[in-house]
Design goal:
The protein has two domains: about 5-80 and about 200-270, Rossmann fold (3-Layer(aba) Sandwich); about 85-195, 2-Layer Sandwich (Hypothetical Protein, Haloacid Dehalogenase-like Hydrolase, Chain: A, domain 2), CATH 3.30.1240. The chain is about 35% helix and about 20% strand. It has helices at about 25-35, 45-55, 85-100, 120-130, 145-150, 165-175, 200-210, 230-235, 245-250, 265-270, and strands at about 5-10, 40, 65, 70-75, 80, 105, 110-115, 140, 160, 180-185, 190-195, 220-225, 235-240, 255. The protein has an eight-stranded mixed β-sheet, sandwiched between helices. Strand 12, helix 8 (about 230-235) and strand 13 (about 235-240) form a beta-alpha-beta unit. The longest helix has 13 residues, at about 85-100. GO terms for molecular function: magnesium ion binding; phosphatase activity. InterPro entries: Cof (IPR000150), HAD-like_sf (IPR036412), HAD-SF_hydro_IIB (IPR006379), HAD_sf (IPR023214). This is HAD family phosphatase.
Length: about 270
């Protein structure tokens, strides 16, 4: 099979447990791109965070960010797809989080909004302290999110809610699932990702392939968690990380090594090199 595109998740897949890209992974991606294959970063992260790693590995192709809610060619600022959450639903989601006293954050394509510096927002804050100005994530701390959303015309592509109490997270997921206008997936066992209804990495990948006239049989997708399952289902060849959840590994065509042991590089070598 002659492949034309590889879609790679970031956290738990391309990145090791220290949040870094190994030299082996970077070399393998370069060798694949040298063969004319498009390597697409496909992540739940905010777009500006994905840009940093796309540049680091030398990828000049579209980025699927916010679990598929925002897709853009970063090198020429060409937005291909975007699906923000309806403003009314944004307010309803925030009300649920506030009622349950949960940490949450949300973002558009370039600004990270939060009430508290904790969990992921604290990680990004600490990341910023080590970075050059052009690599920093814009974090905006807001005291009253509902009021802020009401008074500002912003496009929110994704919410993330996190808590150490997994049962509490599951109860909130059940409550949110009553809203038919939103999509809910998990990218980590103690968190939920909320997007506009129908948004997924798989749907974004399918639309991207339509734009570039690439057949699904010519696509490899590599991931580790629930939010990656849709793109693995779309791709002709699906690769799960050894450190991934059982559901992803059971579905995949092939299970590669862990994210700490160059699993992405080994998958590329198997199918491409």
């Amino acid at each position: 099979m002659k492949y034309k595109l590889i879609a790679i998740d970031m956290d738990g897949t391309l990145l090791d447990n220290e949040g870094k890209v190994s030299e082996e992974n970077r070399k393998a991606i370069k060798m694949a791109t040298d063969k004319g294959i498009q390597v697409v970063i496909s992540t739940g992260r905010i777009f500006t965070s994905a840009i940093y790693f796309a540049k680091f590995v030398g990828v000049i192709t579209p980025i699927i960010a916010c679990n598929g809610a925002y897709v853009s060619e970063y090198h020429r600022e060409n937005v291909l797809l975007h699906h923000p959450i309806n403003k009314e639903d944004v307010q309803k989601i925030i009300e649920v989080f506030e009622k349950n006293n949960l940490y949450y954050h949300f973002y558009d394509n370039e600004i990270f909004y939060t009430k508290d510096l904790d969990y992921n927002s604290l990680k990004y804050y600490e990341w910023n302290e080590k970075q050059k100005e052009e690599n920093k994530i814009h974090i905006e701390i807001i005291n009253n999110p509902i009021e802020f959303v009401h008074n500002n015309d912003i496009k929110i592509y994704k919410f993330v809610v996190m808590d150490k109490d997994i049962e509490k997270i599951m109860r909130v997921r059940k409550e949110l699932s009553l809203n038919e206008n939103i999509e809910i997936v998990s990218s980590w066992h103690s968190s939920l990702d909320i997007m506009y209804k129908g948004v997924s990495k798989g749907k974004a990948l399918k639309e991207l392939c339509n734009i570039y006239d690439i057949k699904r049989e010519e696509v490899i997708a590599i991931g580790d968690n629930e939010n990656d399952l849709s793109m693995l289902e779309f791709a002709g060849t699906s690769v799960a990380m050894e450190n991934g959840i059982d559901l992803v590994k059971e579905y995949a065509t092939f299970v590669t090594d862990t994210n700490d042991n160059d699993g992405v590089a080994k998958a590329i070598k198997k199918y491409i090199l």
